[in-house]
Structures are given as C-alpha cells and as structure tokens.
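Our consortium's second objective concerns turning raw sequence data into structural hypotheses that experimental partners can test. To show how far this objective has progressed, the report includes one record in full. It was chosen at random from the queue rather than selected for favorable results. The single chain below, 314 residues long, was entered without modification.
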Amino acid sequence: MAATTPTPAQVVDSMEAMAGGTHPGYRRSGARGSHFRGTFTPTGDAAAWTIAAHLSGSPVPAAVRFSNSDGNPTAADNVPVARGLAVRFAPPGGDTDLVALSVPRFVASTPQEFLELTQVLRPERATGAPDGAKLQAWAAEHPHLADVLGQRPPIPASYATTAFWAIHAFIWVDADGRRQPVRYRWEPEAGRADLTDDAAATKTRDYLTAELRRRLRAGPVAFTLQVQLGEDDDPTHDPTLEWPPERKDVTAGRLEIVAPVDDPRRWDAQAFNPARLVPGVELSDDPVLAFRGRAYLESLRRRSTGDESTSVVW
C-alpha cells in the first residue's frame, strides 16, 4: 500500500495549531525574522559539477532572512529551538533560494511523519504545552527517528556565529548532464559560538536580531557556503540521515551581509522557497523537499490574501 501523503493545507493547518493558533500576516514557520542585504561571491570551485549561474560566475546580489523557527511571532530567542537562514541569490536570468536551519537533520523522513509530529506537538488547552506522554508514545512508534528527535538545537550567541544546514540533498548538473548529489552548509567566518542555558536566561526575547544589527554597524558579517559531495549509496531521499563526515567538502562561495534591507515590508511579503531553483540544480528524490515547496506556497497564499480556509486542493 502506498504511503499516505497529506495535502499542504493539512500540514499548514496543523502547524498553525502547533503555534497556538493563526497569526495573520505571518509565516507559518519562522514567523519572526529580519531581512538583510549582501553579496554572494562564488569561488568557481563548484563549476566542475554544476552550470548554476550563481555558483560559477560573478558576484551576485543576495537577500538574507534570519529567523526564529517558531510559528508564533512572539516566541523568544533565548530558548533551544532551530533558527533559520534563508538566502535569495539574484544572478542574471532568475532568482534561486537556499533555505537552511541551525540543525543538520530534519525531524521527519516523510510529509506524513511531519504532519503527525506537528499534531502531537500541539499545546494542550489546560497547560499551554504539548503532552509529553503523547510525544513519547509517538516517538516509540517511530524508532528510526529516535536520534533526530533527541537533538537539542543550540542557543546561539549570535546569528553571526551559527552554522546552518540546508537539510536536504540536492542534485547538481553539469554541462554534459552529469549528476552529482550535494548537501549545503553555511559556516560562519566568525566561528561557531553558543550560549549556556544560564547565559541565555539573561538575554532579551529578541536579542539575536538586535545583536546582529549592532554587529553590522562595525562591519560585514560573512559565511562560507560549504558543499558536501555525495557518493554512491549516500541517501538522498531522507532528510533525517547525514552523510559520512569524510565526504569531500567544496567551498562554493562567500556570503557577505552588509546591512538591513531598505524595504523590509517588501521582503516581509516575499516567500523563500527551497524548490525555487535554476538550471544546474535540481530537487533530489527527497519527498519532504518536494512537499516543502508546495507547503510554502500555501503559507504564502494565506498570509498574503488573509484567507485562512483550507479549500485549496493540490
């Protein structure tokens, strides 16, 4: 029997419930975020495997969004949740997005698993928190997710000292049609640095954005784009699985962030989408990756139209 695949509307509905209800005008994940502008300069080292313009040509403009992954825009920064880094590259011929999180693995291997997980993580009316017994029971029914469900996201000292992973495998394609599986990772040039729980308790609810703005007044913030090259039998279909650390790592370019955007309202209305690709980059066989592209469009539809119905059929 074929595995059940939910609709994007069903998943977005459940994400809204997990966030304590709808928050009109906000994203259903990463509701609170800030936009910045910068430049991405490719090293040219990726050109041996892909014809993608932003990875093999001249420097390109980049728009950047850092976010707290929670769907509630009032969620605090000083707790252990995943953070987001979304980048839109603007090479000649068309834009492309790279959406990354501050954890190396996703929490579900299929869209159906993700739907079920969001359902068990809904806050109980009486306590305002998820039912721990329900989560434990669900985890016991999904032993292959034990490690990833146990990962505790770090509490960053700064967005500028946080590594971000694009979670999924993608496929690079060269001029001869040869295909190379890859995984992306952003490494902060300032080095990685996290906070202890005690140190985090002293921070304000929005300290990450405030700290980054202060840091930018002293100069640019930079990340390198590291790309892991997959080999035969490395899984491309499951975002809960990592590849062996000894796989070849290529530095594809450098992202330099210089200042907040001049038009934040315009960027608040945008949707970064991991399925927005350019020639030379393709989706892998990861069902979660393909599904995310559709779910992001459903979230955009709701927040841009104010229509909270679930009548859209995909």
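The partners drew two points from this record. DSSP finds nine helices and twelve strands in the chain. The two ends are 21 Å apart (CA to CA). Both points have been shared with the crystallography group to help prioritize constructs.
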